[in-house]
């Protein structure tokens, strides 16, 4: 503690003791002090988002535009001219004559009577003719076993009858055929 100059410390102590022992009256309140400096604090966090607002009203429709003007039709083209006919072609040359065909066809027959069992019969065409086809007929329930050309000029037939006699007729279709 710093002591005042010229006052002995023992006097000061006694004075303090005296002052401490008695209470005096309360003094008047002092005047208010001046306002201190005001400082702002740090900026706070953003608050939560607000509720969605109501939809706005629709705007009015714009007016329709005017229709466009129709275009002008184009003109038709002209028809083309017909082409000229072509000239006729020349006639072809005559072909060579073909061979003469079969002529004078006729049927030649041979008859065999009172036959029995299985037998082969034939008929020949006249000289200079060929066989074109043939066949046979039999009597008494006889069976024809086969019928065929046996050469270029003859037709053959095999006939059979198990019991009894039969008659057989052999046919040949013959004709003159020109040499090739």
Q: What does this protein look like?
A:
This protein is mainly beta and 180 residues long. The chain has a domain at 103-176. The protein has 1 helix and 6 strands. The protein has one helix at 9-21, and strands at residues 103-115, 119-124, 129-138, 143-151, 154-160, 166-176. A 3-stranded antiparallel beta sheet has the order 1-6-3, with no helix packed on it. A hairpin with a 2-residue loop joins strand 4 (143-151) and strand 5. The longest helix has 13 residues, at 9-21.
Compute the number of helices: 1
Q: What gross morphology would you assign?
A: elongated
Order of helices and strands: HEEEEEE
Main sheet summary: 3 strands, antiparallel
Strand content: 25-35%
> Which strands sit side by side, in order, in the main sheet?
1-6-3
Low-confidence segments, given as residue ranges, are none
The total beta strand count reads 6
Q: How much is the radius of gyration in Å?
A: 77 Å
Rounded mean pLDDT is 84
Short structural description:
With 180 residues, the protein is mainly β.
Core attributes:
mainly beta, 1 helix
Write the layout of secondary structure elements.
Layout: H1 9-21, E1 103-115, E2 119-124, E3 129-138, E4 143-151, E5 154-160, E6 166-176
Antiparallel strand pairs: 1-6, 2-5, 3-6, 4-5
């Amino acid at each position: 503690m710093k002591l005042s100059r010229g006052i002995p410390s023992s006097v000061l102590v006694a004075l303090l003791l005296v002052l401490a022992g008695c209470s005096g009256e309360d003094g008047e309140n002092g005047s208010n002090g001046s306002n201190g400096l005001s400082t702002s604090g740090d900026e706070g966090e953003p608050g939560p988002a607000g509720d969605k607002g109501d939809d706005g009203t629709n705007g009015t429709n714009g007016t329709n535009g005017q229709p466009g003007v129709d275009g002008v039709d184009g003109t038709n083209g002209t028809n083309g001219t017909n082409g000229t006919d072509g000239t006729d072609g020349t006639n072809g040359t005559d072909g060579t004559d073909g061979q003469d065909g079969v002529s004078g066809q006729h049927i030649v027959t041979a008859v065999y009577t009172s036959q029995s069992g299985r037998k082969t019969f034939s008929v020949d065409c006249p000289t200079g003719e060929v066989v074109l086809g043939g066949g046979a007929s039999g009597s008494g329930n006889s069976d024809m076993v086969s019928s065929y050309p046996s050469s270029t000029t003859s037709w053959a037939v095999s006939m059979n009858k198990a019991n009894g006699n039969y008659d057989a007729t052999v046919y040949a279709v013959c004709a003159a055929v020109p040499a090739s």
